[in-house]
Amino acid sequence: MMTTSVDEHRAKSDSAAQIVRKNFTDTIVSSLRTFGRAVDLARESTTGTLADVLARNFQWRETLIQAWRLITVTAIPAILMAIPFGVIVSVQVGNLIHSLGADSMLGATGGLGVIKQGAPIATGFLLGGAGAAAIAADLGARTIREEIDALNTMGISPVHRLVIPRLVAMLIVAPMLNVLIIIVGVLAGYAVAVSGQGVTPGSYWSTFGSFATVGDVWVSLLKALIFGFLVVIIACQRGLEAKGGPRGVADAVNAAVVLSVVSIAIVNLLATQISAMFLPTKLA
Question: What's in the GO CC field (predicted)?
Answer without folding.
Answer: ATP-binding cassette (ABC) transporter complex
